[in-house]
């Protein structure tokens, strides 16, 4: 065997023969078997690609057949509503065709809870004395409640018994201190930690003990001489927390808070006497007429009446009883739940001192219990900051403002609120003041007239008037009922003398009875007796919702009662009832009085101060300082790690970004509070707070004490269902009334209701059938065409060299022609065509005989006279369109059965299902066609044709190796011949030369 031969040679030099030509001819003859193998392989490759194309088409047809086996194809529904404005619906395939009339009486709405009042503190309070703690509630002392701390014994079912020692608490300890001590001892006990929690519920004003581990069971009882359980939870002195009763609350004793707190709750002796000193003026205050059961509201009224009666503490120096003349007054601040003693004018810099007069009344403790332990407290200044630093809703800009035609400047960097108000007062005919109680600015005409007050001008450059709510304010006047004639009483008589002793100066003796006070149409009856004083009766009137003030003014000698509401819609009327005659003796108007559209005072349309949501919570303007820790909404816990570094906006975002909490939180800039809205509608509540909460954010935000606006449920009825009775759901999406149909309630309907119609959506099924027939016809035409093509045997398959010699276009043209007929008579394709035609043409057993074949749907190979070629090929056409449409509209289930019915035998299967199964025998992995040619685009050597091609390639490789060796051997042979002949020629020439030499000699 010749391994290698140098081809750097020139043949025929000695022999004179075309040696290379001879070798080429010999090799050409030798190459014939290789060319045949290449032709065979290339033919197989073309057949393979053609069969793969058909396999892909069969797979496409199989998918279209599968679409016809889905119930949604034939059972899709379309929905129409008589009015999408009121009612909409969606229908699944299981919905039945029909119409449903709904009467919507009420839509479901979401639950909301908004801050109870404003949560921002006033811009300034001036000289102010405030209780350091909120009144009552968690700050109520155990002694006030009559509770002895002692200790608690906790027995764990299946575990040990533990004692919680509370002996360090005393009668002066608060409920909050008791709860804190309990929580600390529980946390320090490894067996109790995580099983039970103690917390004070500020909204319900109750102590709550909650079982945290529902698998546990705990019995809690008094021990060590304590009475916590017996006095607060269970008279027996013991109770059990278990999964059935996981929560117990202190419902045996009321714990009052805020304005409803009583003197007894606060531990205040009703005989207390105090000294109020303001500058050089001093007066004595007492709680005369009050009892241990009197509330903070009643105490405030009584104390302020005493201030009204002292000329040194009212404007003008003469006591008239008019509360508007007070220089100093007691107030209850609902935002902080604290009692305050303040100058009524925040610009008044005169300080004051309140002290218990224990010299006169040793038991006096009003100041000690509310303001300072030592029994004496002095006011502290709370003056406003520069405008730029105040908690306005929007920063105030420097520039000019115009009030009542007078233009003046405002400098946000250097002005305070008081300097601007002083400028207004000195420059105009108005008195400008800030009321810390309502957090509003008031502009009052100095002459008391009701002329409209003009605000702003086109040339103004500062936003002060709009930021402070004056632009949107109201100058409307309240409804005022005042005596129509003088009563002749002094301030002292109104405050101290019994009604039965006031005739004269009253025009007649007072008869006990009732006063009916009607405010804006709402009536309240006030009982009185002849032993009551006039001020006591007026105090009761002032507690009625909608009443701002009720007092006797000795300067005019008339009773004046004013509503909080303003404008013409505000109405007020007083009437005698039950035999009483007080209204008549007070000369009150006999008919209702109304407010006026314009009065002498213009007041800000909204609170001046607001929460600054973009700055830290500690400097945002909250009336109650926000503490760090955790708070809980709907069982989801949120954490404020550092109030100084956390803004209100950040807290709201933290809530809104949590998908589990189920509420949307937002800040209401107009109302100055936070609003939580449930993301789900219906009469569900929003759970605020949890046993483990450590931050007071919810309380500071005014949410825990706020009444929730509980959402309402949807109420509707459906004709023909449930006897037409009203149905109630916690959603406007109703999916459980009609199977497969979801109704969406949008608006309340009229008595006739609105109708939803469910109809078969034939478009889906029709498209699926059209698509199926299209692909079926394409597939059967392709298969039939390949089987019946006539082959041009004059075309030989190409060798590799021949393919290389052709251009791309020439090669494609030649192969296209050569492929024609290449699959003629292919047994696999013949079988596939046969199975397809059998699947499509056979009837389907066990279905409605009116719909057991395609012809029953108007689908066939053609009408009479159709093309023979189409009929022979087996293509299908919709020959009766109306027949198919009617079948889909009226009998979609029967059409579905014809295509999709499942069965154990092929004849019992629906047409699409058995075609799908038949095609799967060819297209699946290992299927007849896939096994033979593989899948298009997949590289595999496992198909039968791939193996054939691989085997031929191996043979070609061997032949190419043999050809190379053969050519090398021929070259060597001819090279050797040339070498031998060259030697013979050399020898011959040598012999000839010698002979010539011999002949010449």
Write the layout of secondary structure elements.
Elements: H1 19-67, H2 71-75, E1 77-81, E2 87-91, E3 98-106, E4 110-114, E5 126-130, H3 142-145, E6 151-156, E7 161-165, H4 175-188, E8 196-201, E9 206-211, E10 218-223, H5 228-233, E11 238-241, E12 247-249, E13 273-278, E14 281-286, H6 296-308, E15 328-333, E16 338-343, E17 352-356, H7 366-370, E18 376-378, E19 380-382, E20 399-403, E21 406-410, H8 417-427, E22 430-435, E23 440-445, H9 464-467, E24 478-482, H10 491-496, E25 513-519, E26 522-528, H11 534-542, E27 547-553, E28 558-566, E29 571-577, H12 582-585, E30 593-594, E31 601-603, E32 629-633, E33 636-640, H13 648-656, E34 663-668, E35 673-681, H14 697-700, E36 714-718, E37 727-729, E38 733-734, E39 741-745, E40 754-760, H15 762-788, H16 800-805, H17 808-819, H18 827-841, E41 859-860, H19 868-873, E42 877-878, H20 881-890, H21 892-900, H22 911-923, H23 928-933, H24 944-1000
Antiparallel strand pairs: 1-40, 2-39, 3-36, 3-40, 4-35, 5-16, 5-19, 6-7, 6-10, 8-9, 9-12, 10-11, 13-14, 13-17, 15-16, 17-18, 20-21, 22-23, 23-31, 24-28, 25-26, 25-29, 27-28, 29-30, 32-33, 34-35, 36-37, 38-39, 41-42
